[in-house]
Amino acid sequence: LIKEGLGGGLGWSLETDEFRGNCYGDKYPLLAHISKKLNGPVVRPTINPNIRPTVGPKPTGKPTGPVRR
Questions:
Q1: 10, 14, 17, 21: most buried by Cβ count inside 10 Å?
Q2: Which percentage of the chain shows pLDDT scores above 90?
Q3: Where do the segments described as Disordered lie (predicted)?
Q4: Has residue 18 been placed in a domain?
Q5: Phi and psi (nearest 5°) for 32?
Q6: For the CA atoms of 50, 51, 52, 54, what is the dihedral angle to 10 degrees?
Q7: Are 35 and 42 in contact (CB under 8 A)?
Q8: What pLDDT, in 10s, does the model give residues 10-27?
């Protein structure tokens, strides 16, 4: 696509990609390869186990409108 100067491409049959990661160890190897060739290497986010998710304030008071059921 890049070499030919095309503006886009079409993947016809992506259901044969490995969506569970059982065969190659990584999920989506076909899509990852296409992405790597077009956009560069896939950078996987790292998760810091020391950071806890933030929690918003607890609601106060009563509902202002009727309760829908």
A1: 17
A2: 0
A3: 42-69
A4: yes
A5: -65, -40
A6: 160
A7: yes
A8: 877 878 788 887 877 788
